[in-house]
Specification:
mainly beta, SH3 type barrels, OB fold (Dihydrolipoamide Acetyltransferase, E2P), 6-stranded antiparallel sheet, 5-stranded antiparallel sheet, flat
């Protein structure tokens, strides 16, 4: 059994029967009364952020999660099929567990987080940035760059990303999977 003194960012604990990860925490020792720990926890099953306050020294259950490298193969409706890079076993995960399914393309490397106790997949994380080819966008207007204007572009995965006016169809861009925003143009 661990206590609140063992808290660190990223630690996975059992909170009210749900697997949660500590996003941030703060030990508070007021002048009057006992010390406590303010935390923000992310529920690993549904992604909700829960604020909670623990009294200092309270016992907590640490749970073990494993991150494994997988490769995206294809999707069938709301089920996405992945292959383990080490054992070549295939598994499927519902769309709700993937942080940015609209940016997945065949062969994309991802990390799947499993609850070690029962091999339950908790979430699937794409890399922070992915390179995608633009399949369609309106042509840019010459000389219309005085402002930071953006135009919608359709990616090879079907996702729509807002890009600067000077970028054309067929070019590759880097997209931030956490925000879904354009990051930069990919050279070569």
């Amino acid at each position: 059994m661990a206590t609140t003194a063992d808290f660190k960012n990223g630690l996975c604990i059992d909170f009210n029967g749900e697997p949660c990860s500590i996003i941030e925490f703060q030990h508070v020792k007021p002048g009057k009364g006992g010390a406590f720990v303010r935390t923000k926890l992310r529920n690993l099953r549904n992604g909700k952020v829960i604020p909670n306050t623990f009294n200092a020294g309270v016992k907590i259950d640490i749970i073990r999660v494993e991150r494994r490298a997988y490769q995206f193969l294809y999707n069938e409706g709301d089920d996405y099929h992945f292959m383990n890079n080490e054992t070549f076993e295939q598994t499927f995960i519902p769309k709700t567990l993937i942080n940015a399914p609209e940016f997945l393309k065949e062969g994309q490397p991802v990390e799947i987080v499993f609850l070690a106790a029962n091999e339950e997949p908790l979430l699937c994380e794409l890399p922070p940035f992915v390179d995608l080819t633009i399949t369609y966008c309106e042509p840019g207007e010459k000389g219309n760059t005085a402002t930071n204007a953006l135009k919608p572009a359709t990616m090879e995965t079907g996702a729509i990303v807002r890009i600067p006016l000077f970028i054309e169809s067929g070019e590759k861009i880097r997209v931030d999977t956490r925000t879904g925003e354009y990051s930069e143009r990919v050279k070569g």
